From TrEMBL:
The keyword DNA repair does not apply. The chain crosses the membrane at residues 158-176, 182-200, 221-239, 259-281, 302-323, 329-352. Residues 356-379 are annotated as: Disordered. Residues 369-379 have a biased composition (Basic and acidic residues). The lineage of its organism: Archaea, Methanobacteriati, Methanobacteriota, Stenosarchaea group, Halobacteria. The keyword Transmembrane helix applies. Keywords: Membrane, Transmembrane, Transmembrane helix. This is Putative membrane protein. Pfam families: DUF373.
Length: 379
């Protein structure tokens, strides 16, 4: 037999309803539950007793041998309450008229009542313990699960908690800045961080940065030369920028008056074009190398470094002419050489791609025709 044992450690049932305990049997327990619910609807022990009745009815419908009872303690110390519960459990067990072995399912409303479990176990084997938790109000429960979902979702957590954390840091950082006599710097830095974060989230820069980092990591592990080419190109871009600024400063120092915008642009281009061209050639060669290793290289890809050199040659001639560093003859030579170099490259690689692709197609056709001819001969 299974004994469904409802535990009321502080004897709310006896104090608030006058019921004498223990209460044994389906009908007496239901009357006790209704009486306690009428006396104090907010008492959690009401739910314990009704849960015991629910378990009893469920097992009884399955034709299982089951009994339900309510045992209580008292308002005194935990030791006295536990002893009272133990005595009532003995009374309940003595009242059961059955030849079957009795086991118990203990139902409580919290950890405090569960402290009596060792006392009950010393008298009857326990099959399980069920704690009854009352559902909260709908708004409170909804708010709880909303906060829980926010904290568990990495994307939402980063979107909500990071700006909130930065805002909460403004006041203590302002105090630190005031103590160090740098309040403006601290507040400016904090607001700048918050602004940069919001802008990056709004533009989706975080996803792009993560994607670029993942691509760089895959390229590094795959041994792709493109990654190294990009690093070298970045360094060349920096050197080109510095060289362009130096050229601009030299032009401004040598000029008697103000320098116009076309001359400023020409100075920047003239000083940096050779570095930028080297960066372009480096990245294109790295990409060509990776395509060749992957077996997907096409002839027209080889136009990229040639185009970079052609464009650099044209820009160098134009910028040098605007800065009086080159005469008309050099400008004409640069324009003609850049144009011819680009056209020649395009035609050469187009012809090469056409011829080699036709040759590959013919070789594939011959390789397929050979087995067919052999089959005809055998037949």
């Amino acid at each position: 037999m299974l004994l469904v044992l409802c535990v009321d450690l502080d004897d709310d049932l006896g104090r608030k309803t006058g019921f004498s305990t223990p209460v044994v049997g389906r009908e007496p327990v239901e009357e006790a539950a209704i009486a306690l619910a009428t006396a104090d609807p907010e008492d959690s022990d009401v739910n314990v007793i009704f849960q015991g009745l629910h378990v009893y009815d469920d097992l009884d419908e399955r034709d299982e041998s089951v009994e339900v009872a309510v045992v209580t303690g008292n308002e005194e110390s935990d030791v006295a309450a536990n002893r009272e519960v133990g005595d009532e459990v003995d009374t309940v067990l003595a009242s059961l008229s059955t030849a079957e072995d009795v086991t118990a399912l203990v139902i409580t409303d919290g950890a405090q009542d569960e402290s009596v479990i060792p006392i009950i176990r010393s008298r009857v084997p326990i099959d399980g313990v069920r704690r009854v938790v009352v559902r909260q109000a709908q708004n409170l429960e909804s708010m709880y699960y909303t906060f829980k979902q926010v904290l568990n979702d990495p994307e939402t957590r980063g979107t909500v908690l990071i700006p909130l954390g930065i805002l909460l840091l403004i006041y203590p950082l302002a105090l630190i800045g005031s103590a160090m006599e740098w309040p403006g710097f601290v507040l400016g830095t904090t607001s700048a961080l918050l602004g940069l974060y919001l802008i990056s989230r709004g533009l989706g820069l975080g996803e792009r940065i993560d994607s670029a980092a993942a691509q760089a990591r895959r390229s590094l592990y795959a041994g792709r030369t493109t990654l190294l080419a990009y690093v070298v190109a970045a360094a060349l871009f920096v050197l080109g920028g510095v060289s362009g600024l130096n050229e601009l400063e030299a032009i401004q120092e040598s000029a008697a008056g103000d320098v116009g915008v076309p001359v400023m642009l020409a100075a920047l281009v003239y000083g940096s074009i050779q570095w930028l061209a080297a960066a372009g050639v480096t990245t294109s060669l790295g990409q060509i190398t990776d395509e060749y290793i992957a077996g997907s290289l096409e002839w027209r890809y080889l136009n990229a470094p040639v185009y970079v050199v052609s464009i650099a040659l044209v820009l160098h001639g134009v910028s040098g002419f605007l800065l009086d560093r080159a005469d008309v003859g050099y400008l004409a030579t640069a324009l003609t050489a850049g144009t011819l170099l680009g056209i020649t490259s395009t035609l050469a690689f187009a012809v090469a791609e056409s011829r080699f692709s036709d040759r590959d197609a013919d070789s594939d056709g011959d390789s397929e025709e050979g087995p067919r001819a052999a089959d005809r001969i055998r037949s």
